[in-house]
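User: Assemble these into one structure.

Assistant: Restating your components, then the assembled model:
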Amino acid sequence: MDENKYTEELYRKGALAKIAARKLGNLSSQVKDSALLAMAEQLESQAEKIIAANQLDLASGQQKGLSKTLLDRLMLNENRIVEMVSGLRTLASLTDPVGEVISMWTRPNGLQVGKVRVPLGVVGMIYEARPNVTVDAAGLCLKTGNAIILRGGSEAINSNKIITDIISSAAVEAGAPENSIQLIETTDREAVNVMLKMNKYLDVLIPRGGAGLIQTVVENATVPVIETGVGNCHVYVDESANLEMAKKIVVNAKCQRPGVCNAAETLLVHRAIAEDFLPAVGELLVKEEVELRGCQETMALIPGIKSASVEDYATEFLDLIFAIKIVSDMEEAIDHIHYYGTGHSEAIVTENYTRAQEFLRLVDAAAVYVNASTRFTDGFQFGFGAEIGISTQKLHARGPMGLPELTSTKFIIFGNGQIRI
Amino acid sequence: MDENKYTEELYRKGALAKIAARKLGNLSSQVKDSALLAMAEQLESQAEKIIAANQLDLASGQQKGLSKTLLDRLMLNENRIVEMVSGLRTLASLTDPVGEVISMWTRPNGLQVGKVRVPLGVVGMIYEARPNVTVDAAGLCLKTGNAIILRGGSEAINSNKIITDIISSAAVEAGAPENSIQLIETTDREAVNVMLKMNKYLDVLIPRGGAGLIQTVVENATVPVIETGVGNCHVYVDESANLEMAKKIVVNAKCQRPGVCNAAETLLVHRAIAEDFLPAVGELLVKEEVELRGCQETMALIPGIKSASVEDYATEFLDLIFAIKIVSDMEEAIDHIHYYGTGHSEAIVTENYTRAQEFLRLVDAAAVYVNASTRFTDGFQFGFGAEIGISTQKLHARGPMGLPELTSTKFIIFGNGQIRI
């Protein structure tokens, strides 16, 4: 650790962030919202500069032979900048969770004990190619009074540098403390290793990106981590399902946006309705250009599809590929979900009251649905107005995280001379 | 890791705990409470056996030359068993947090989204010499539907083995799943290293004990940790304090039970009242056999006391030793608290409204007091009816943790065919 050449630079950034955090935690909502609006304005007026820097990243990405998908994630155009800007403006309009007294009660000895929301302190964000995460994460942290240290992917370094420059200056000019928003400018992976163990300076690490990145962070960090995102999600169509509804839900969960974590990856179908349901839904899915991979029984019902391997059931495809399995009952479906799933989003389609209730109770996941698409697991869809990610761990936050999930609490106690006897 | 000879044993325990956890999570409160009562009854009726096993631990502790304090922590007598038993009975009488729907709302598209409390899953507990932690932790986890893997100190191994045998059998007989409560029977430290990285099986690790243990766990664990306990707590006596009240609070915070984390370790006094206050409170403290260590100015006001070093200000004495410092104003006091404190419990004594409010707002700690002793930072004193520890971190829980802090949440979503557009 001590031999890592980035230790000094990162510790310095950490110490500066700590100082900023103490000031940020006591900034009024008014100043924070002005800062967010100033950030939005500056991003808007300097859009051309950002796009130019992004062109450099895209060019070197093409040279390195990045995939089309990656290049698309990396790409910023006017539309995407407009989205980032409007995200910041929405944030400014939301209620500040900091300072909320969640509850307060009086003890028999007269002590008044209250629990109040406070910022977490310093948030470390480790992410990949999407430069919009830079703006989103910085905005969310500023709104909640947290300092942030950003570590984006090397592919986006030019975009991230210019974006951080712009929003950081705008925030400071509007009254936010210096160093509230900092970017780690080296793209060497060694720097991440320092960050993972900066317990002295970081209150939490949030990794956003693919399974590999998240795994690395979870396995190596000693700073508390909020694990986000990996979703091997299932839709189980029960024997009592309304099959018309089931078709719509299955097609939506798989196809509406296949590259995201709340899209379905495996379809589980009760044997009693498989013959009625599978050929019909198969046709719809094939029309949507979905590649189907089924168990033996499924293959008999939908001719011409591939066979699903154990690995397929364990894979988050993030693509137009769908594994299918026929099950004997809900219990088998739930066992399959717990064995292969990642605890993200799981849905049952059923008209049976008892099974609906059981599924909600028995399935251990961040979001469990009856008769709706898994695609709704999302801070905006749930009505939070903002989202920092979707937690798949159980500590601190689970499921879509909005502004309150970026806060901690402290107890405040009003006494009049109480001592303990 | 893979070469650790305890990997196999611990992974097996982990896998068994996971299975138990799934069942425990769906056990009714009724069955869980019967199990708690059965555990209490069996501990009571087998008290003699426990005391006999404890004698073995005490004898080998004496042979190893353990300190008096450690031997006292290790010791079980009838009274202490009665306390453990009554703790379990209290737990049985408390409301089960599992299944509580914290909130539920309807989205514009008709989706009903609810947030419900669920168990964390499998809790790993790493602690030191106190065998009563075995019972407390097992009881708290059973009540909240969590499986537990216990790892107590080697000094208490005989006590822990018999206690775990008794409570585990009692719980199973009363309907709890097998392996809900497991003890790691080896006392080799190598086993802890496996436990710290059992992310596959453990949802959280809770270390309880001295600063060294907690540090080791925090620095080496990849499993999410709830950091507990270390308290370098301060009382700041402001210039406007009611000095009679201040004396009582200071003496109570230091002396009522000096060996615990919420006892005060440093007294900060505003210069304007130091001459009036320090000699008087010094006399009271000396009468209580407190060793005082002061700054230069303090030494002039209380003749004969030792000089306080920087290290003294940074130390959690857990003993009748008290560091004292005179400060120019509240700002200096708060800076001192943030520089040396551990974010546990901090108190101001003041009659000044503005400074009281500022202290509550500006001090970054789990519990911040106005005009009361720091000794109240405790789950029972706060009215939770139970306590698993006092968190000094910001993620998940901060301050005294009761039953809800041993739970997570999941979203349950009731739809009627909604798909995302």
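Chain A has two domains: 7-227+393-413, 233-376.
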